Amino acid sequence: MHRSVWLTLIIVFIPISSSTSKSLYVVPFPTLIDNKSDGTLKYPYSSLQQALDHTAYDITRRTTIYLYPTHHFVDTLHLNQSHSHLRITTMSDEDVAFYRQISNRSLSTASISGGVPITGWTSVGNNTFKATVSQPNFVNQLFVNNHRVVRARLPTNYSEYLQFAAPLSDPNSARYGFQYADGQFDSWVLDDAMVVVYHSWTTSHHYIDRLIPSNRTILFTNPSGAPIGTYTIQGQRRFHVENMCSSLIANSFCFVNASKTVYLMTDGSYDPNQVQIITPVSEFVVSIVGESINQTVDDIIIDNVAIQHSAWNIERTQQADYQAAAFLTSAPLYIVNATSIVISDVEISHTGSYGIWIQDGTTNINVLNSLVTDTGAGGIRIGQMQSPVIFPTNSINIISNEISYGGNVFPSGVGLITHRANDVTIADNSIHHQRYTGVSIGWEWGYSTSYTSNIFVQGNYIYNTGEHILCDQGGIYTLGLQPGTVIHGNVIKNVFSYAAYMWGVYLDEGSTGIVVSNDIVYNIGWAGLFQHYGANNTIINNVFARTSLIDPPQSGDPIPDGDLRIMLTENHLSWLFTRNIVYDIYQGSHHSLFKSDAPNVTVEFNNNVYFNPLNTTLLFGIEQTSFEQWQKTGQDNNSVIADPLFIGDVNQCGFFTVQEESPAAKLGFSNITKPARWTPGCNTDELTSRNKNFYHW
After folding, report:
1. Which of 237, 312, 334, 421 could cysteine-pair with 383, CB 3.0–4.6 Å?
2. Structural domain containing residue 273
3. Which residues does residue 167 pair with via DSSP β-bridges, in sequence order?
4. Which residues face 422 on adjacent strands?
């Protein structure tokens, strides 16, 4: 069976006559012309809110708000039904020139910012400066000249961790603390500190309640999801402590809440009074939210602007620990009960949570040619978690974007996650440098109704995910029943966990009815393809190469699991695996090409090509038999172990295109189209990722 996927993007707008369109201008500094302000080019508004107030309920015509290319500091900008048929964009160069004599253009595009500038810095010596703030409740993010500054962290080497001595014995108490090691906490100034604990696929963030020095116990005001210490291999008792001023190093900051004072240590290359320093205040920066499914916001275009500087806040008793950082409830661009929305050529950056969240009651939402980067959690979040779904999320198009450098506050955020949604196209995106999974689809564990269908993940370049920080993740991760879901034509490379459980394509609990076709998956820590359990998945015309590459970081950690793996046995077809190439480079006496963890797994293998250039014996199935014995079970009767004859040097990681005389071509394998954003090379990014500053890129 071969299935081609064709993308058709239809963007529907409510027709508005161009003859009734209107333009408004916003310049957030005095224009020195006179005191008149009517939104015209000559007499612009001084704030975006003024322009929105002007447009409210004027829905008979298209209104375009042109922003001067500088920072526009806002409280949450609320767009509701009364603002339908609105466009927000940056002024043209010609319009900017009108104000040139008043102010030099400072940015390439207008920035809608949820932050406030911090000024009035005074030196306290050693390249350290302080400033007091009044508006924010607590400064936990700082951006200097458009770059994130690290919140002071112990250990000061951000690629290292502290380790606690032991978990607490009572399981409920263990969610609220641990026994710390000698030399930890007792002498530290902890008034404003936060403890971040590493579990498996999550971190938990904790405020300190009290210390009990007699038995070296620390207790928190808020719990973790699972008892701390549950995941021995994945967690390794790791934690770090943030916001202690004693751990300031160059290009880091801390905040003393009692005096509302920010301390910033520079590297000596700049004066804080001569640069732009911003701290986020608003969790929502632009909110496109209709009052109900019957009162939607319609026909909004936001293009050629930046949406930046969103805050994160955790209540002192709030559990801040869940898969995919799904406990977060905000995003700087937040869309609910809306239709026909276009987000194009926009930068979403410097966030405390995800960059965009497209929630329930939405249809025909399009995010195109945009950059979502430097996010506190993941990049783009689609759909809802609750079941049953009353007001669906459907017809969502995420096309030709870059989603990069995520997890700077909450490492468990996903580059792009769709919870419960239908008819979603995720195509031609570059998704990279995420501290957890690249793309996640579905939000139902097992075989219950998933409210997820027809998700097209096509032509994406997903690389450098995991970054050796968390565990149990994949380049593309799926959950539950997914009729019509197709994962096609993607390139996935460089997927590495901290210690265990890292796969290229990860079909987790109940993943069913999914087609995985024409993908190239390589440089993976464990297997290129893993299925926990699921039914009737089709794996066709893919390349899985160079898998099981990680070296276990601790003695006693599990070794990689091979090339392909199914974990649980069920009484239905788990997958059909046909016309694929598996190129293995493991060097040793025995190695699992296909590993089944339980007997009697129902699978169908045929017309595949397997190869190891180092003459390693490749083993198959629950019994881990030879290829010849595997074929005697009725599997892979038309398959071969042979050189697939890739064009070029496979060790340099070209595009794994086969020659015409390839045995794979003779078995029906078709060469795969190269995504436009793909870059060659075999570097796994392992060494550089281990040494990169956490929270700083």
Report:
1. 421
2. 116-152+248-279
3. 178
4. 394, 453
